[in-house]
Amino acid sequence: MDPKVRELRQQMAAKIEEARNLAEEGKLEEARAAKDAATALKQQIEALEELRALEESAQVEQRKPVEAPAVHIEKPAEEREKAYKEAFVKMLRGKGLTVEERGLLEQRAMTSSSGEDGGYLIPPDIQTTINQIKRQYLALEDYVTSEPVSTNGGSRVLEKYVDITPFAQIAAENTTLQDLDNPKVTQVSFSIKDYGGILTLTNNLLADSPENILSYVAQWIARKDIITDNSLILAVLKTFTSKSFASIDDVKTSLNVDLDPMLSQNAIIVTNQDGFNHLDQQKDSMGRPLIQPNPTQPSSHLLFGKPIVVMANRLLPTDTTNNVAPFIIGDLKSAVVVFDRQEISILTTNIGGGAFENNVTKMRVIVREDVKAWDTGAAIYGSLELA
After folding, report:
1. Is 306 helix (H, G, I), strand (E, B) or coil?
2. Which residue intervals of the chain are DSSP H helices?
């Protein structure tokens, strides 16, 4: 083996082991980077081996002596078939062919539709790479507050909103002062809950597949974690004040009046594809689109200066019965808190839990968290009429 190829194979094996260890520790981004590095090394090895094969083929052609025309002697059918197959395989591998072998290939018309004329020898176009379909997996956790915690439960003290009244006027000197109204507080309690399951993979699949199955599964689990978080966050937001927006003016009114000015200043708009499509068709009195591009993020948009977060319809469905799209507005950082006990935990075993007896590898996935409303006045879970 070429020394360079041997060195690259050692590096690739090390990267694969590194990626596996990172995935088991739940470090998905680092694991993905190590996996990509291993893939790049694999491609480099394949390129070097292909070049070496071409070099060998060229050397054979240069050394090949000119052969005199051979006297054709008809061989038995079985021998002709064997010689033909050997010549065909040599051609596929890029090796030099003799005059007789070239003659065999020229005499028989090879078509992929006929098995006996070469079709049996042509391998089908089979790819084992898992081609991932492109779909959005927007994480709502990026738009709310996430707080790591170190216990299974606890609480936070939160100021309770009440109207603050002015100080009373002091009528005269040496007058007994009135008692002030006390500030109000409330308690937000959290109790960590576990979410997860077991994924079983056969050891034969892991051993025989040329692809990194565990790397793909790790990405699939990460997407499942996002879906879990989104469902919990949306369930909490649905308990907030609801409002039906019949027009864009209603949205503007909520931003200006229903939300406190400090909350409105940091507000965002969360809707789905149907809601965004409706907004994208709205124009002002001058015929200009109401939605404007975000100068700081060209791929995003603004409505009344507020960022629009667009979720796929399958993640945030439209109420087709009433023809309304979900339309959440507010300061979500102040509205919802995710109490995160630990990052997603992924552990594998091929021994315990019946894995040894069944020749499988079991992957345990656990997410520990609780999602709570923090300031219910910070957001509105509304619906936008699409008609």
Report:
1. strand
2. 3-24, 28-63, 77-92, 99-107, 203-208, 213-237, 248-253, 261-265, 273-280, 332-335, 355-358
Give the CA angle between residues 251, 257, 263 to the nearest 5°: 90
DSSP string, 108-161: S---TT-TTTTGGGSPP----S----------GGGGSEEEE-SSSEEEEEEEPP
Give me the helix-helix angle, 3-24 and 213-237, nearest 10°. Answer: 30
The CATH H-level superfamily of 127-387 is Major capsid protein gp5 (3.30.2400.10)
Report the pLDDT value the prediction gives residue 78, as an integer from 0 to 100. Answer: 67
Quote the CA–CA distance of 54 and 234 in Å, as a whole number.
59
**Can you read off the two tokens belonging to residue 244?**
């039906």
Phi and psi at residue 30, to the nearest 5°: -65, -40
pLDDT, block means (10 residues), the chain with 387 residues:
73 83 81 84 80 66 51 62 63 63 59 44 40 68 91 83 72 76 79 90 72 72 89 96 93 94 94 94 88 84 93 93 95 94 80 84 88 94 92
pLDDT at 259: 94
Closest by CA position to 188, among listed 337, 322, 16, 23: 337
Interatomic CA distance for residues 247 and 191, integer angstroms: 40
- What letter represents residue 311's amino acid? M
> Which of 360, 364, 365, 305 lies closest to 329 in space, CA to CA?
305
> Residue ranges of the domains in the chain?
3-121, 127-387
